[in-house]
Every structure is written in C-alpha cells, then in structure tokens.
Write a structure and sequence with these properties.
The protein is of the alpha+beta class and 185 residues long. Helices cover 31% and strands 23% of the residues.
Length: 185
C-alpha cells in the first residue's frame, strides 16, 4: 500500500536493533514520511486490519492485524524541549526520516529499514548506530540530550545492562555532569 500511494515507510528503532542483535522483538514501530493516521486509514480500508488507537497530537496510530499483531505507525517529526525535564513539543510533521531520527535518544535506536519504493529492505543509518551496536556502545545523539530528558540516563543504564553494552566515554561524562549538578546544566 505504501508503494501504491507513494508513501515512504520505515521499520525503525528498537525492532531494527533487536533484529541485528538476534533478540526477541518486543514491539514494532514504523515511521511514515506522511500523515501516519491517514496511512493507517488507507490500510484499514484496503487490508485486514483495524485502527485500535490514535494520538492526533503526535500523528500516530496503533493498528491491529488479523493475526493479533499490533504495529505502531508514527509520522516523522521533529521535537524541541522548551522546558527541561518536560515532554517535548512536536513539530514539522511528515519531515524527512533523517530529521526524525535526530530527535531520538541513542544511536542504537536510530536505525531504520526502508519498506517502500526503490530502496525496499535497504538499511538506513544516518548516525552510525550500526557501528555502535557492533562495538557494543551506548551513545547519545547530542550533548544536550540529558538536559532535554534526564530519564535518558536511566534508559542508558537499562540498555547497558540488558544488552551488555558499555556507555560511550562522552555519554558517560555527560551523565556524570548532569547527575553531579543538574541545576547548572
């Protein structure tokens, strides 16, 4: 359907990482360079699936297929953190996948696989996440990452333990800096 309607869709994030690591898949996320809700409606009209939930403010839809599998479809977007420690504001919906991955937490969660067009099944790695997976490194995407969202510190520790990965040197330094004096960051 993505090809028929000219919509670029990508398997994204944790599922790609887990497939590379040969880990069990916990959930399936698909990024849509278009309005994901409209794409979910197209799918519902043209296949054996149903929309089970929608988040209008984030342009996301959860779709359940005939076999019971649920897949989250999200419009590509950018985000900005106007206030530290608060949820970000989403903007620039339907942007390029490259802009979308730059809002994510760690490079290991930025890998994608194209599911449409001439690039079908081609891996997409804008931020060298594959190299970090192969070298077992947890790396933030930008130096203000923990200031934007301090819960990323917990996620880094969780991923490090879960996958047996090391926290990359600069990422660890920035974690320590934030934890030592969060008010001055």
């Amino acid at each position: 359907l993505s090809d028929k309607f000219g919509i670029n869709v990508y398997l994204i994030g944790g599922i790609v990482r887990d497939l590379i690591l040969n880990n069990p898949v916990k959930d399936i996320d698909i990024s849509v360079e278009h309005d994901a809700i409209k794409f979910a409606e197209i799918m519902e009209e043209n296949s054996d699936c149903k929309i089970v939930s929608v988040q209008e403010n984030l342009k996301t839809a959860k779709v359940q297929f005939e076999n019971g599998i649920e897949i989250d479809f999200a419009s590509t977007r950018e985000e900005k953190y106007e206030n530290r420690g608060f949820l970000p504001s989403a903007y620039n919906f339907c942007c390029s996948l490259e802009k979308d991955v730059k809002r994510r937490d760690f490079t290991i969660n930025t890998l994608a696989v194209c599911l449409s067009g001439n690039r079908k099944y081609e891996p997409v790695d804008f931020l060298n996440g594959l190299n970090d997976i192969l070298n077992k490194k947890i790396r933030i995407i930008h130096d203000k990452s923990f200031e934007d969202d301090p819960s990323r510190i917990v996620r880094a520790l969780k991923f490090s333990k879960r996958f047996g990965f090391n926290i990359e040197e600069n990422t660890f330094r920035l974690m320590q800096k934030y934890l030592t004096n969060p008010d001055k960051n």
